[in-house]
Design brief:
Blueprint lengths: L13 E6 L5 E5 L2 E6 L2 E5 L10 E6 L5 E5 L2 E6 L2 E4 L10 E6 L5 E5 L4 E4 L5 E3 L10 E6 L5 E5 L2 E6 L2 E5 L10 E6 L5 E5 L2 E6 L2 E5 L10 E7 L2 E6 L2 E6 L2 E5 L10 E6 L5 E5 L2 E6 L2 E3 L9
Antiparallel strand pairs: 1-2, 2-3, 3-4, 5-6, 6-7, 7-8, 9-10, 10-11, 11-12, 13-14, 14-15, 15-16, 17-18, 18-19, 19-20, 21-22, 22-23, 23-24, 25-26, 26-27, 27-28
Length: about 300
C-alpha cells in the first residue's frame, strides 16, 4: 500500500516532499533524494554532490532554484548538479527549515547555528546575540500580514520591523519545541509541538491534545487545506475540521504511524511521508502508491 525501497526509494524513511510544476515529485529520505517523474525514479546521493544523504527539508524558490537541506548543509540543484553554498550559517550546518518570504529572502533554520538569511549576498544570521533564545530553529513561516514566525527548540519568535518578540510557556504554550507553523484559511496561526497542536488567538496559545482527539501529542507537520488542517504526528495522521479530529493509523492502512511530511494533490488526495514509505489518502482510504502509477 506504499512506495518503499522496493520501488526504488533510497530509504523507507520519507522525511520531506516537494511537488514540482512539471508534475514530478521530489522525495527526501534518510539515505538520499529521489525524484519521481511519471514512471521514472531517479536517485541522488552525496556521490552526486549532496553534502549529506540525510535529507531534512526541500524548497523550490520563485526564481526556479531547488534547495535541499541536509544534516551537513544546504545545496542548490541547478542544471542537473548540486552546488554547496559557499558559506554555511553558524557553526553547525545541519539544516532543519527552509522558507522563502514575500521579498525573496531565503531563510535557513539550523541546528545550533541560529537563523540564516540569504538574498544576493553572503549569509547574515540571527543568533542568541540578536535576541534568539535558542539557536536550534525547527520551523519558519511568514503570515499573510508579512510577519515572520520562527519556531525554535525553546519557544516561538515573531520578527517584525527588525524586532524579535518571544512567546513561551508564560503565553500558554504546553511545549516550547515548535516543529511546525502554519496559517489556516481564516488567518489563525497554528503550531505543532511535542505537546499538541497549538492555536494562537488574542496573544495566547490554546493546546489541543490527545484528550481532544489528537492521535498523538508529538507533531511533525501541519498542512492547511480547504476547511481544515492536516496534522502529521508520531502516532498517525489527523485532520482537524469543524472543531473535531479524524485520525488514521496502522489499523487504517498507514505503513507506519510517524508522519514526517504531507502534500495535497490537485484531486484532493493526500501524499503522506512516513518512517516506512510514502502512502496516499484518497477520500477516507489509504491507497497504493508506486512508481508504476506515477506517484502522488
Amino acid at each position: 500500500s506504499t512506495l518503499t525501497a522496493r520501488d526504488g526509494l533510497l530509504d523507507d524513511q520519507v522525511t520531506a516532499l516537494w511537488p514540482d510544476a512539471d508534475g514530478s515529485l521530489w522525495i527526501g529520505t534518510s539515505q538520499g533524494l529521489n525524484r519521481l517523474r511519471g514512471h521514472e525514479m531517479t536517485a541522488y546521493t552525496s556521490r552526486d554532490g549532496l553534502p549529506d544523504d540525510n535529507i531534512l527539508v526541500l524548497l523550490r524558490d520563485r526564481e526556479g532554484s531547488f534547495w535541499v537541506g541536509t544534516e551537513r548543509g544546504v545545496s542548490r540543484f541547478e542544471n542537473g548538479r548540486f552546488a554547496l553554498l559557499p558559506r554555511e550559517p553558524g557553526p553547525n550546518p545541519s539544516v532543519r527549515a527552509l522558507f522563502e518570504d514575500a521579498e525573496g529572502n531565503l531563510w535557513i533554520g539550523t541546528s545550533g547555528g541560529g537563523l540564516g538569511r540569504l538574498k544576493d549576498v553572503p549569509f547574515t544570521t540571527l543568533t542568541r546575540q540578536d535576541g534568539l533564545n535558542n539557536e536550534l530553529v525547527w520551523s519558519i513561516f511568514q503570515d499573510r500580514d508579512g510577519v515572520l514566525w520562527i519556531g525554535t527548540d525553546d519557544g516561538l519568535h515573531r520578527l517584525e520591523g527588525g524586532r524579535l518578540t518571544r512567546y513561551s510557556a508564560h503565553d500558554g504554550m504546553a511545549s516550547t519545541t515548535v516543529r511546525a507553523i502554519a496559517q489556516d484559511g481564516e488567518g489563525t496561526l497554528w503550531l505543532g509541538t511535542y505537546k499538541g497542536l497549538h492555536r494562537f488567538a488574542g496573544g495566547r496559545f490554546h493546546a489541543l491534545q490527545r484528550r481532544d482527539g489528537l492521535p498523538n501529542d508529538s507533531i511533525y507537520s501541519i498542512l492547511p487545506s480547504r476547511g481544515g488542517l492536516w496534522v502529521g504526528t508520531a502516532g498517525g495522521l489527523a485532520r482537524y475540521a469543524d472543531g473535531r479530529f479524524t485520525s488514521w493509523t496502522r489499523k487504517d492502512g498507514l505503513p507506519e504511524e510517524t508522519v514526517f511530511s504531507m502534500l495535497e494533490e490537485p484531486d484532493g488526495s493526500l501524499g503522506i511521508g512516513t518512517r516506512r514509505g510514502l502512502a496516499r489518502l484518497r477520500g477516507s482510504r489509504i491507497e497504493a502508491v508506486g512508481a508504476r502509477d506515477g506517484g502522488p
